Amino acid sequence: SDSALFGITTLQFTTHEIPKKMDLLNSFVYPDVPRDLWETVFSKQKQMIIVGVLGKSNEAHCNKLVEFGMLNIQPNLEDTAGNDGRVKFYFRTEGETLFLHFDSTFDNVVLLKMAEEMMNDKASQPSAHFITFNSAIRTRYSRILLFALQVCHILILVETSVTFDLSYLSLFKSLKIIREKYVLKFLPEMLRKAGVGSFMGKECRLASPRLIFLLSLPETLEKPTKEDIQALEVKLEDFITKTLRNEFIITNNSAMSLFSLPKGKKFVFYTQSNEQRKNPTRDMMMKLSAYLDKPGQTIMNSERDEALMNKLKPYEFIGFPDFKVEFHHSEKKRNSLTILDLVQVHVMDILEPVFDETFTSVKHRTKCGMALPSIGQWYDMFRFMYQVFIENPAEPSYNDYEPEYKSYLENFHTLVDIDEQFFSEVGAQGLELAMLTYKEMLPVHYSARYHQTKYLDALHLLGQYVRGPQLHPCVKKLKEYCDSIWMSGKQQCEYPSLRGNPCLMGKHQPLDPSEHSSGVIYVSSCNCGRIQGHREDPYTIRQANYEFYQCMAKSCSNCKRLDHFQFPIFEPSTSDFRAAEFINKNFSNLMTFDGTGRTASDVNNKNLYRPTQDSPYISSSERSQNSFANFSFNIVSYDGPGRTYDGTQTKEQNEELYERGFALNHKTSTKEIVDIESYNMDKIRTTCNSQNQDDKMTTKTSVTEPMAAIALEIGPTINAVKYPSTTEYLPGMLHAASPAGLLPRFPSWSLVCLGSSSIYTHNTGLPEHVQSGFLSGSNYLLPWDVNVRLEHAQSWAASYEKIRLRKKANPHSSKPFERNNLFTLKIFIGVEYECLRGHRFIMKSPDSILRSSAEIARDSGSNVVFNDMPIYFSCPCRNAINNTAQLMRVHIITPKAPVNVIIDPKVKIFQNNMQSSFTFNTGVTQSIKLTQSSYWILRLPFVYEGDTGALEPPAEVNTNSAIMHGVLMAGMYGIRENEPNEESLLGF
């Protein structure tokens, strides 16, 4: 009976004190054994059944014995919060059962405390991954569970839910392996050396412990019947038995089983009480309040009042005198089985000589190997086991232990933690596949961008396999692996070309940048435009602007025999020459220029050389800085007796006129007359009058003539001339801010004469065999009608009049021309663009492409002569990538007249959204004179280079904002009349 189990007798007494012979439930927390209990219990030879209680709880006290109904006091009033590894003893002095209550990481309070400790220990580091945290929880619980299975006869697993937790299966399997592989090897020897546990035999445990499962039914409105609960218990018992046998956790041989399940006896129990959630203080206050509210109660003599006051007691035997205490089970309670009753059944079964708890037939049953030591011997064994299984694994080092025991300590976590093992194996597989993905179809050399793309593909595949704490180590290994492959001979050079394309060769250190190769091929025309060829992506300015065209000249029949204008280049006087090294203290001057390409510091610099002699080798810097210093302008009537000028004309005024499209002649003692349409003339007058009111320029204007012209005369000269260096050359391209006296080693420009002007016919345009690669309808040059007054070419004028009269047959129409010697000349201009695929076309204005000859008007050329033309423009071809065309050539057909067309090309390239710019020029100190009745082609640089490197062209050009990237500056063209001594050269 229950009374026999706990030494409880039925008695009745009336006293103010608790009788001494009453047997209370004693408890203490290991290892703090009270002295009186040690002397009365643990020093005796009494035998007791050890019952362990382990599992889950939701309350702060973690006490799972509340459901047993055997505690003297509610745990909420007594127990402190649970702690991992804490073992609390419960027993009666005269009883035969010792309860061991284990706190573990499956108790919610312990779990929360452990989480806080892990976060506080490494507050500066990222929190542990959930899988790592869960792994630590399982490992600690497994140690407690293995220890309990070693020291208990019966083990009760408490569940807070209605179902069996299947995660126990992995724990049971791991502990079974650990016990067979490690524990049975080191524990017998350690017990022998310690001199304890000799009663346990070779199995090193008290018995194959019986497992009892205590589960909780949920709180529902409809309370289940006793029959429903029993049916549920039977079904769960069958399920647990079948599952454990299928996993080989229990077998027919109890010695080879981790624990045993009693056959034919109940081992699953459902409880419906809510003892765990009771608040005794609140309940006591509620009952006391109910008692005090009852009127007329002055003495406690009724049985009803006695029952109420008994309920007010926080624990047994406390309270009022003169009341009856009875220890007996009522008939109703006898018919209701409790968990304590179930434990009693199994305890009595162990105390009696029963057979082995196996599932074999009756004839194969054997006597159970059950050890029942004295409580003193058991306690000595318990202390040693606690140190072996609980305390020692918490130490940081295991080097002082025996090899077998050390191996157990080191491998315990690996065997128990199947989650980490699973994720580790999956991670290894995913890492291998990711490495194969990266290594698949790798080229011989590849860029950092391709390397990053392949790495990201491999990383994406890795992320599909790897989870948990293994993710970061696997990512690190993958990164190291991919980087090692790329850097072990597969790294691409990636040195950028002048067009921004990376070198495709393996990483190398060439002495000359021209040894790089991007593998990109462009199509470009030769200097004269007759043939087209493939060119490699250039890496040096010499390759881009000189060597390719020299190579093409060898294949072009025209380029070999044509006359070429010689641009000034560096001519060394010694073999020991070198590139110049210069530093501009005011670096901003290199990047910001006014309309003429000069820096702000040049305007106020009085020490600059100002050469005016006809030296062809003065640097472009000097020319850009001083070209306007010696000119004066006279706007006169052609009926006036003469022209005057003022040599004090400011440079700013001259620059303003120059930027508005007027040609200047840099040769002394030469008169140049260029007729401009009347609307252009008015614009000039307005500009000059508004901005130069204080100038000393003498202005005379005639309003009687319908047409006007501008006469330009050269002012006084300065004799100082600075010649270019013959020992140092300019490393880059010539531009307005280049140091004075330095010239490049090769020309970036080209000017060739194709021959007579008769090559071009305006009706048919440029034929394919003369100029290849032009888009259909865009192979026409634009006419530019120029009115000029010739004062010296009388013979040519007479011949011109005869031809004109023959065509016009109107003698009266020639009078004004004969009187004024004013003639109209036709010049053909073509501003040609070429894309990287070799498509060529002519622009009819700064924002439109010539698409057919029908779009050409009488004076269409003025649209490109007097306007800045964009350097880059969108090509009409269908190429979606790199369809930016570049202004590469200017076609000029000079008239058959005693005049020379002069050109002074300047290219301004903008950077940083037009906040800075470079102005490039040819380096010629005087305007270039083109011969009469000839077809000239000026080829511009393919790549422009500033002081800090190449200026990359835009990847995409908008038609409306093309001039924001760079322009061919207006004012490039001019007309110059031949001197009298040159007239005989015309051949008329």
From TrEMBL:
The cross-references to Pfam families, in alphabetical order and at most eight, read: Smg8_Smg9
Signal sequence, renumbered to the chain:
none
Kindly list the biological process annotations in GO that this record carries.
Answer: nuclear-transcribed mRNA catabolic process, nonsense-mediated decay
Q: Which UniProt keywords apply?
A: Nonsense-mediated mRNA decay
Name the InterPro entries on file: SMG8-like (IPR019354)
Q: Does the keyword Nucleus apply?
A: no
Task performed by this protein: Involved in nonsense-mediated decay (NMD) of mRNAs containing premature stop codons.
Q: Which family does it belong to?
A: Belongs to the SMG8 family.
Its recorded name reads Nonsense-mediated mRNA decay factor SMG8
Task: Tell me what organism the protein belongs to.
Answer: Anopheles darlingi (Mosquito)
